[in-house]
């Protein structure tokens, strides 16, 4: 009885299970159809090209916000170029996805790897990815390493080529334009100095070489000495480039800086001399005024002394200390321009009157 009841129950649930299974299979089929319609063409392209990408990887790329077409195209490029795209040791799908998610340019990276392989340059995926993620254009770096790049020195501003100014020992200015041919040094591309550093160092070297020349004629006669002197300085040390050559494009004679400096110095010396002369003149004028003041003081003293002479003479006459053999004489002040009368001269010695005892 129990077995019959159980069999009857199974028969009742069998239609329900059949409907559920059919629905499940329908959902699975719909999902598979969507996947095939969405990724079938890309997967077939990768399969035919030998790119070794599974359908599951394509679905996972979409879930990780990675464009499957970019990864597939990059792997196809690598496969056709002869690069190793093995999942274990080569450029795997996982590496390309990681590089894309890190913000790198997968297509540019693959182009750089292909160009380096064709040129015989030792560049692996890890180094190329590091260069690309460091903000450098890895494809341009490989291309510059294969085909050297020419840099104008100094750098043109607004499309206008300017000249570098340097002065020789004789004081003559020379206007120089040069071109530097550089090749990318992939070993120092990460952390190495850029083109601006190369231009600055070359400009500094040109100025130094010209400044060490005795005359500007030496530079004009042999401009190659500039290139030789600059190259010997090893200006490409710790830079992302290797200097291949330095070519002097143009050398023009500018101003005579030495003569202008001498003229400015002479003018400065003249101004200093004038200032010193003005100081001496002012001192002389001040000394003259001091002497004039002293003369006035002396005249005042003389006038005071002359004013005491009449009093002294009068006192001498009253006391009988001054006498004359003739008539009495009246002495006047010298300032009245008078002179003694009755033959009495003030230039002679003063005579004392005779004593009463001497008459006997």
UniProtKB/TrEMBL annotation:
Protein localization: Cell membrane; Membrane raft
Record key words, sorted: Cell membrane, Membrane, Transmembrane, Transmembrane helix
InterPro entries named among the record's database cross-references: FloA
A GO cellular component annotation in the UniProt record: plasma membrane
Region of interest (Disordered), residue spans: 338-360
Entries under Pfam families matching the protein: FloA (PF12127)
Membrane-crossing residue ranges in chain numbering: 16-37
Membrane topology term: Single-pass membrane protein
Subunit structure: Homooligomerizes.
Function: Found in functional membrane microdomains (FMM) that may be equivalent to eukaryotic membrane rafts FMMs are highly dynamic and increase in number as cells age. Flotillins are thought to be important factors in membrane fluidity.
Family note: Belongs to the flotillin-like FloA family.
Name of this protein: Flotillin-like protein FloA
